[in-house]
Design goal:
single chain; mainly beta; Immunoglobulin-like; four-stranded mixed sheet; four-stranded antiparallel sheet; globular; Ig-like_fold; DUF1573; DUF1573 domain-containing protein
């Protein structure tokens, strides 16, 4: 997280429910330790469709907005090395369900390559779709599990997309979820 503190002309937006969540995410730092970080506990940026489920970085030039990208940890030399992975599913169909029901599905990513797999960011196409995962690097032959949740905002058919940014040639890996909300 030191690279965040040292950044200039950059604003980092982190969506966390509590300061404690940020403390765990940052490895023991408080949001007040950073002068260029906005901790969005009220999900304001999501309601304004400014961010996805992953922290976003807003780049400024001369104090004006230039672009935004998902937050990615700095890449060490080993992270530049490519590997391969398989996902046990890339299409999830929840069928019909009631609006009050939260849908959940697990997707297992297996590192089938010879180098360590690093997941740099996971984005979803809307705030109604969230993803939880363990962040540590995945050694060759090992797996990590993504837990995908969907909370319907309105009735009708839907299709949403999740993009997993990682050190594989075909990155980002796309996972689609669909269904019909009654």
């Amino acid at each position: 997280m030191d690279h965040i503190r040292e950044a200039t002309d950059t604003i980092y937006v982190f969506m966390c429910d509590t300061e404690k969540d940020f403390f765990l995410l940052s490895g023991g730092k408080k949001s007040t330790d950073f002068n260029n970080l906005y901790l969005d506990k009220d999900k304001v940026s999501a309601r304004l469709k400014m961010v996805t489920t992953f922290p976003m970085v807003y780049f400024l030039k001369d104090g004006k907005y230039v672009e935004r990208r998902p937050y990615q940890r700095p890449t060490a030399e080993s992270r530049k090395r490519m590997t391969t992975l398989t996902a046990d599913k890339q299409y999830i169909d929840w069928g019909s369900f009631r609006q009050a029901e939260i849908q959940e599905e697990k997707v297992i990513l297996t590192n089938t390559g010879t180098d360590t797999l690093y997941i740099n960011a996971i984005e979803s196409s809307c705030e109604c779709t969230t993803v939880q995962w363990a962040d540590p690097p995945v050694p060759p032959g090992e797996c990590t599990t993504l837990i995908i949740h969907f909370r319907a905002e309105e009735k009708g058919e839907f299709e949403r997309f999740i993009h997993v940014h990682c050190n594989v040639p075909e990155s980002p890996i796309e996972i689609s979820v669909k269904g019909k909300v009654q």
